[in-house]
Amino acid sequence: MSTPPPTGPLVTRDTLAAGLRALGVEPGETLLAHSSLSSLGWVCGGAVAVVQGLLDALGPDGTLVVPAQSGDLSDPSHWGNPPVPEDWWDTIRATMPAYDPLLTPTRGVGVIPETVRTWPGALRSAHPQTSFAALGPRAAEVTGGHARDCRLGERSPLARLEALGARVLLLGAGYDTCTSFHLAEYRIPAPLVRVGRPGPTGWEVVTEVSIDSDRFDELGHDFERDRPVVRAKVGAAEARLFPVADAVAYAQRWLAVHRSREDEI
Predict the structure, then answer these.
(1) CA distance 45 to 68
(2) Burial grade of 59 (CB within 10 A; 0-12, 13-18, 19 or more)
(3) What is the pLDDT of residue 80?
(4) By C-alpha distance, which of 209, 205, 164 is closest to 183?
(5) Which residues are 210's β-sheet partners?
């Protein structure tokens, strides 16, 4: 049985850039992009064409930022997709390679961020589990100084993006992926957790603010209802555009009311 042809739409580098401009992406701005390649339709050139289209829309003075998370650098006792046998845990902790911004691949954020991470000239922040990668004139400013004990808080690229007036692009991605909401978790009472991971000199455990995307879809629904969010189709994808600062401020108020959490270790 022959494979049916794709239903499209056919998306190219040029049509993607045009769609992003029509959405409101401006040359020279700093853009934090959360994306889904499969949502766009049939993309000629795949993730490479998407990154090219994003860079075309931003122009030479714009900066593209993506999450470059590597959550598999974590304690195997917490793994569930898939789990590993308990008698493997000690060996995994002893032998897991430490984070290297040039070598460690992304995990769970899609092929577009991985393409940005490996793009010539890309810079990547230093946190072993929740790094960001960036391309453009402000890449060093965004990614530099990411504290190893601050996943998505005041000493992470999210706070720099907020200060720079950056905007969020959800390109076929839902509000559950919106990392800007996590910055708000650092500004309200939240539990602390101990996080295990491979370090430069062996296995290490650090204390971090607990981050949890539970109810981010509800938060995003209310945010979009109450605050200006630009929406349009780009290819087949539903796209949204809004300021990082707006998302953080709204989430700080919303989470304090709708998802309060006690401060405890």
Answers:
(1) 21
(2) middle
(3) 85
(4) 209
(5) none
